[in-house]
Design goal:
Length: about 325
């Protein structure tokens, strides 16, 4: 009954769907609209009027996120960033291995199909949607397996974007501690940057560097997946944008661009808000209702595991 009511609302609003969507997207470009608000706006539209440009926005989101990450490189110092990346190396390796192993065990216990379980585990262990997009062709995942795993990751990302900064302040985490924690425990780069940026500039720098160094693990995990799933001929996607991010950071460190760097960094942060709006706009009622409780439970348990263990390690080992 509720579903029919929402559907009838969409029919009544159909002439306004495109203007509403374009207006909302344009609003996220304003400085007063923070990344969390942009995400909420996208989800609200997805649940009411729907996304009239669903196919286009799915293709655009990944490119926009990658360009935004590259732009953030122009606001970072290479010496400080590499120090942060090195500090998080052990936690990165340990958390990826433990999450993939626990994900495999949970998938077996809950009786989840092998592909969906591995995609959810990989998305949680490495870098959310980017990892899932890279590994899906390796395991030859079908559309339902892909949409379910992406839906789970982006749903939990939406929660993390609001929850983590609040928890960070309650626990009195330093900028460095929060940056490290968010980079490891939040799935997707977009929400990591959004949460860390809200916490502070130093947290943003640490989080971005640790998250991008973590994203490089897509390559070995994809290779291992190809061996385990016996799909040796599958092509592996290499996250090329990370190299451009490093180049941007090196340029800013050794050849300061002054106002140009500030402009590019500001544009990148604006692009991130638009990215989160587009991600939210694709979380349709159909996607959320089609997730299923078993894969969702696996995703939640893995997220709780990686969040609590890394938080304890960061607090007690640093």
């Amino acid at each position: 009954m509720a579903h029919q009511h929402i559907s009838s609302n969409k029919v009544r609003l159909s002439p306004l769907r495109k203007p509403l969507f374009i207006t909302a997207a344009a609003a996220t470009l304003l400085p007063v609209v923070s990344p969390p608000v942009a995400l909420l706006l996208g989800i609200a539209l997805a649940q009411t009027t729907g996304n009239p440009y669903a196919q286009l926005t799915r293709r655009t989101t990944q490119w926009l996120l990658q360009l935004s990450v590259i732009g953030l490189g122009f606001g970072m110092n290479a010496h400080q960033a590499f120090q942060a990346g090195r500090a998080g190396l052990f936690l990165t390796i340990a958390s990826i291995a433990a999450t993939l192993l626990l994900g495999y065990l949970l998938g077996k216990i809950l009786g989840i199909d092998k592909n969906t379980s591995h995609l959810v585990s990989s998305g949680t262990a490495i870098c959310g949607g980017s990892a899932i997009a890279a590994i899906a062709p390796v395991v030859k995942a079908n559309d339902k397996q892909l949409s379910v795993s992406l839906g789970i990751i982006f749903l939990l990302n939406s929660v993390a974007l609001f929850l983590f900064p609040v928890l960070g302040h309650l626990l009195h985490l330093s900028q460095t501690q929060f940056g490290l924690w968010s980079a490891i425990a939040i799935h997707d780069t977009s929400s990591v940057v959004g949460a860390a940026g809200k916490y502070g500039p130093e947290a943003l720098q640490v989080a971005t560097m640790v998250k991008l160094s973590r994203a490089l693990w897509i390559i070995p995990v994809s290779l291992l997946t190809g061996l385990l799933f016996r799909n040796g001929k599958s092509k592996i996607k290499i996250p090329w944008f990370i190299g451009l991010f490093v180049i941007a950071m090196l340029l800013n460190t050794f050849f300061p661009l002054g106002h140009v760097s500030y402009t590019l960094t500001s544009a990148a942060k604006t692009g991130l808000s638009l990215t989160l709006f587009l991600i939210g706009s694709n979380l349709s009622r159909e996607i959320l209702s089609g997730i299923g409780w078993k894969p969702l439970l696996q995703g939640v348990l893995l997220w709780v595991f990686i969040s609590t263990t890394t938080l304890m390690a960061i607090i007690f080992l640093q």
